[in-house]
Amino acid sequence: MREKLWTKEFMGLGMANFFYFISHWILVASLPVFIMDDLGKSQVEAGMALTFFQFGTTCCRPFAGRLIDGMHKQHVLFGASFILFLIMAGFSFAGTLEMVWGLRFIHGMIFALGTTSAAALVSLILPLSRKGEGIGYFAVTANLAMVIGPLVGLLILNHFGKSFLLLFLALLALSAIISGSSMKLPDSVVRPSGRMKKGFHISDFLERKAMPSVILGGLVFFAYGGVLTFIPMYARSLGLSGLSSLFFMTFAIVIVLTRPFVGYLYDHHGPDAVIYPGLILFSLGILLFSMWNGPVLLIISSALLGIGFGALSPSLQTLAVQCAPDSRAGVATSTYFWSQDISIGLAGTILGLAVNVLGYSLMYLCICLPAGVIALAYYFWWRKKQVGK
Question: Could you read off the pLDDT of 27-56 as tens digits, one per residue?
């Protein structure tokens, strides 16, 4: 008999994660409009709101793992969700650009703490035989939020105004509090892993045993960050601006449809059965994306990228957690997510410079494609080394 996956605890944590991500993506789309229209600021100053958020996330992520493993994990999630509610309510009173930037910085820190807490708890409550499948479904909550969030944010802003949008965001944060705190989790899952050590040690922030997965994830997220960040400009350069939404729609649909098979393969045939095909398809998707010249090639490349990324992201996260002891689940999770934050952030800067020299198509071909190929070679080397041991 298969162990139960869809428990109320799993669904509650998944919903909490969804509310965190959708509130973030709503702000990504709608906050620049508010900054430019209501505060009368420039596009550059509006874009800085996302920079402050990413800075807060990157600064907090390493400390999140230590905090989660050293305290009652569900209490950490509740505290983060409560502060998230205060931040969303605070945007209603943000009358200056500096206040908006400050709230986004704190939002980034709380986002890192809350999402890492939820992911660490999920990795501990899932049965071992269905861990890959469960983390895969859990990751769908973030994927759906990425697609739905910007659309919902702009629709509410355009039809109901800023005040209603900010009220809606506060209700989402309240929903995160309820979803993450309404069920009682086992003491073996939520209790601290041990006394928090005094001072600072590198092991408090980075899980050494998870580093192979972290390096792989960093390479994949770097290439993915190039797609995510530059697709609107890439489409505009080709005179195909209207097709950007088609890319994200296809990308998200493919991830949702393939997720059950990805989790099943991981749990029943091991990580190699998922990660090798995922890396190959992801690299092939980037290759075709660099040749994009119309809707057909866009759909094919976005579908391949969706299958590849949808297989790699949860599988590498699962592998990172499984390589570490349960007492280090929080640090392993935060280490993996930290590589995601840094890699996507570096992609925006490094690839932005590369575009000026190479152009979009050649940039994807010369930089993003090799990132996928290097990841494939690294994974082959690492797995061969593991077998040798």
Answer: 877 887 788 888 887 766 776 787 788 888
Residues 219, 203: Cα–Cα separation, whole Å: 22
Residue 337 · residue 218 · CB < 8 Å:
no
Q: How many structural domains is the chain composed of?
A: 2
pLDDT (0 to 100) of residue 213: 83
Domain assignment of residue 334, given as a range: 206-389
Q: How many CB atoms lie within 10 A of CB 68?
A: 27
Give a three-class secondary structure readout of 294-363: CHHHHHHHHHHHHHHHHHHHHHHHHHHHHHCCHHHHHHHHHHHHHHHHHHHHHHHHHHHHHHHHHCHHHH
Note whether 252 and 335 are same-domain residues: yes
Looking at residue 357, its pLDDT comes to: 84
Strand segments (E) across 212-319? none
The per-residue pLDDT for 184 is: 77
Average pLDDT over the chain, rounded to an integer: 82
Q: Average of pLDDT values for 199-227?
A: 76
Cβ atoms within 10 A of the Cβ of 277, count? 16
Q: Which two tokens stand for residue 271?
A: 């990580």
Instruction: Return the pLDDT at 262.
Output: 82
Please, what is the end-to-end C-alpha distance for the chain in angstroms? 33
Query: What type of residue is 348?
Result: G
200 occurs within a structural domain: no
Domain membership flag for residue 191 = no
**Average pLDDT value for residue range 131-156:** 79
CB 333, CB 123: distance < 8 Å: yes
Q: What is the structure's pLDDT at 2?
A: 65
Residues 170 and 292 both lie in one domain: no
What are the helix and strand counts (H, E) for the chain? 15, 0
Q: What CATH number is associated with residue 286?
A: 1.20.1250.20
